[in-house]
Amino acid sequence: GENVEQHPSTLSVQEGDSAVIKCTYSDSASNYFPWYKQELGKRPQLIIDIRSNVGEKKDQRIAVTLNKTAKHFSLHITETQPEDSAVYFCAASGPGGYQKVTFGTGTKLQVIP
Amino acid sequence: DAGITQSPRHKVTETGTPVTLRCHQTENHRYMYWYRQDPGHGLRLIHYSYGVKDTDKGEVSDGYSVSRSKTEDFLLTLESATSSQTSVYFCAITNRDKGNTIYFGEGSWLTVV
């Protein structure tokens, strides 16, 4: 089955700096890569996603890049703010009758004011 | 919030007792999922459903059973709770109108003592 590895497990940045979280996946058939943000005590919420026919996608201060050949994808947050502090999960999903989604183990991002 | 309601939100139970968590959705989504979240493990799929009375196992299904007698309700049962089942449980749905994106409920915090 699919295996998703996520690094780093913790990340501290100064407010205004950029943060990068990286994930690798094992199944070349995976074609959908969502990212979730989870604040303490809350549900994971989708912040951005990318499909395998696209190399990069941006939404304001966040962007995701995908390298299908190397089977890795990354989340980039620019101009970080304290409210960006949370746990971020990457995930990979392949074709199938249901969304067989495999999640990474999470990155705890701390933005220091 | 994709119209997902979980109950109970918090529960403390004793080892060996049965526990049922309920997930209720109001938007007629076909696919429903139960995940558990534990530190260092991310989100792991317990069981999923692809229609009324149609369910299948995920990666960590031992000790859990599910039922879906109506489209809107997906029940997760711990037949005899163990301390290793202390976790946060998230119900989720696939929204096919939004590119098959997975959306999570608010979570159920279960403590087995």
Main features:
heterodimer, A: 113 residues, mainly beta, 6-stranded mixed beta sheet, 5-stranded antiparallel beta sheet, 11 strands, 0% helix, globular, B: 113 residues, 7-stranded mixed beta sheet, 4-stranded antiparallel beta sheet
Structure description:
The complex is a heterodimer of chains A (113) and B (113). Chain A contains no helices and 11 strands. Chain A is mostly beta strands and 113 residues long. In chain A, the strands form 2 sheets. In chain A, strands 2, 4, 5, 9, 10 and 11 form a 6-stranded mixed β-sheet that branches. In chain A, strand 4 and strand 5 form a beta hairpin. With 113 residues, chain B is mainly β. In chain B, 0% of the residues lie in helices and 59% in strands. Chain B is built from no helices and 11 strands. In chain B, the strands form 2 sheets. In chain B, strands 2, 4, 5, 6, 9, 10 and 11 form a 7-stranded mixed β-sheet that branches. A 4-stranded antiparallel β-sheet of chain B has the order 1-3-8-7, with no helix packed on it. In chain B, strand 9 and strand 10 form a beta hairpin. The model of chain B has no long low-confidence stretch (mean pLDDT 93). At the A-B interface, strand 5 of A face strand 5 and strand 10 of B.
Q: Could you give a short description of this structure?
A:
The complex is a heterodimer of chains A (113) and B (113). Chain A is mainly β.
Distance between the termini of chain A: 41 Å
Uncertain segments of chain A are none
Helix content of chain B: under 10%
Q: What's the number of helices of chain A?
A: 0
Largest sheet of chain B: 7 strands, mixed
Distance linking N and C termini of chain B: 31 Å
Largest protein interface, residues of each chain: A-B, 21 and 22 residues
Radius of gyration from the alpha-carbon trace of chain A, in angstroms: 14 Å
The beta-strand count of chain B equals 11
Number of strands of chain A: 11
Radius of gyration of chain B: 13 Å
Oligomeric state: heterodimer
Bin the strand percentage of chain A.
over 45%
Query: In sequence order, what are the helices and strands of chain A, one letter per element?
Result: EEEEEEEEEEE
Structural class of chain A: mainly beta
Going by helix content, strand content and strand pairing, the class of chain B is: mainly beta
